[in-house]
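[agent] plan:
  1. take the single chain provided in the ticket
  2. run structure prediction with default settings
  3. attach structure tokens to the ticket
  4. add a short note for the reviewer (M.T.)
[agent] executing step 1
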Amino acid sequence: MANPLIKFDRFPIRTRLTVWYTVSFMTVLAFSFISFYLVTKNLMLTKTDDSLTAQATEITNLLNSESISPISKELILRTFRITKTNFVLVLDNSQQIIAQSITFPLDADFLLHLQDDINENKGPHFFSQDNIRFYIEPLVLQNNPVGIIIVGDSLNTISDAF
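[agent] step 2 finished; step 3 output follows
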């Protein structure tokens, strides 16, 4: 079986240069598109994370003047009736639901995964599940942990964009 490069050497120089330039151009173009895709996706995810962090901060600020109780539920939910993609869940120390938006249904599997994640990671952190990005932050009032704030947003917009 003959080496394909030996046959390639038999072509005129114009054809060989055209093939090499085409392969080089396509390689650079593919690299550029992949880089653009990754940078843009990372930027959109960072903007989503910034939005979730801002929402959690706003809930913390709302609750600074209130104690965490069922009374604070209306205040939180009234503030966060924004879009159908936002998710807000506030739990007390015993992980009982204080306030919950109705945009995402909570099933038992999700709550178990959420409790495991809360027990493993005590500080503020992000995680994704089922194409939803969540931010979990402990709620601390006057240096006492009183609950957990969980905010989420759908990643469908990012997925649809790509």
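[agent] step 4 note for reviewer: Helices lie at 4-8, 13-64, 70-79, 108-120, 156-161.
[agent] ticket updated
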